[in-house]
Amino acid sequence: MDMQLPVLVDDTLLGEAGTETPALACVLEYAADSFIALPVHAGVELVESPRLVPVPGMPHFCRGLVAWQARQLPLIDLQAYLGGVDAPAAAAFSHVLIVAYQVASGLAIDYGAFCAPSLIRMVEVLDSDQCPLPVSQTRWDDLAISCFLHRGRAIPVLEPSRIFTSPVSPAIP
C-alpha cells in the first residue's frame, strides 16, 4: 500500500463561481534559495534519516540507493543534478522525498527519491500564477512541465519521469 503525503484541504480552497480554484503543489527547497515543485500526486512519502547504500560508479548526482518498501530506489541530489556539484560537496540532507512517476498511461507506476535538505511545503497555485521557466538553468525545458510564481520566485514544476528515465546526462561538474 502506498502512503500519500498528508494534505488537509480547507473548504476555503473551493473556488466560488467566477473565481479560480487553487491547486496544491509540493514545493521543495533543494539548495539554498533554489526551489522546485512537484504535482501533489507525485509526492508519496517523506522519509526521515534514510539509510543510504553507496554504489560505486554511480553518476555524481546519485547519492546511492535508498531502501523503501522492499525496493532499492536511486537517490538523486537535485543540487548536483542541476548544478554539477559533486555529491560529497553538496548540502547535507536529513530527509528523502519518495516520488512516484509513470512513463506512459497504462504502464506501471515506478518510484525514485530526491534528497530533501529541508521539509516540503504544500502551496496553493492558481492558473494565473503560471510564468515562464527561469533562464538561470538551461535544463528546465527538459525537466519541467510548467512553472509558477510563488512569493516573487519562479518555481519550475518537475516531471519526475524526465529525471529518472532520462538518457541525457545532467550538468557535468
Task: Label this structure with key terms.
11 strands, 6-stranded mixed β-sheet, disordered N terminus, 3-stranded antiparallel β-sheet, mainly beta
Can you walk through the features of this model?
The chain contains 3 helices and 11 strands. Mean pLDDT is 82; it is low at 1-15. It is mainly beta. It has helices at 78-83, 140-143, 161-164; strands at 23-31, 34-39, 43-48, 52-53, 62-68, 71-76, 95-101, 110-116, 121-125, 144-150, 153-158. The chain is globular, with a radius of gyration of 16 Å. It is 8% helix and 39% strand. The chain has a 6-stranded mixed sheet with strand order 3-7-8-6-5-4. It has a 3-stranded antiparallel sheet with strand order 2-1-9, with no helix packed on it. The protein has a two-stranded antiparallel ribbon with strand order 10-11. It starts with 22 loop residues before the first strand and ends in a 9-residue tail after the last helix. Strand 4 (52-53) and strand 5 (62-68) form a beta hairpin.
Q: What sequence of helices (H) and strands (E) makes up the elements?
A: EEEEEEHEEEHEEH
Strand content: 35-45%
What is the mean predicted local confidence, pLDDT? Answer: 82
Q: Which regions contain 5 or more consecutive residues with pLDDT less than 50?
A: 1-15
The helix fraction, in percent, is under 10%
Largest beta sheet: strand ordering: 3-7-8-6-5-4
The number of helical segments is 3
Largest sheet: 6 strands, mixed
- Shape summary: globular
Radius of gyration: 16 Å
Structural class: mainly beta
Euclidean distance between termini CA atoms: 39 Å
Number of strands: 11
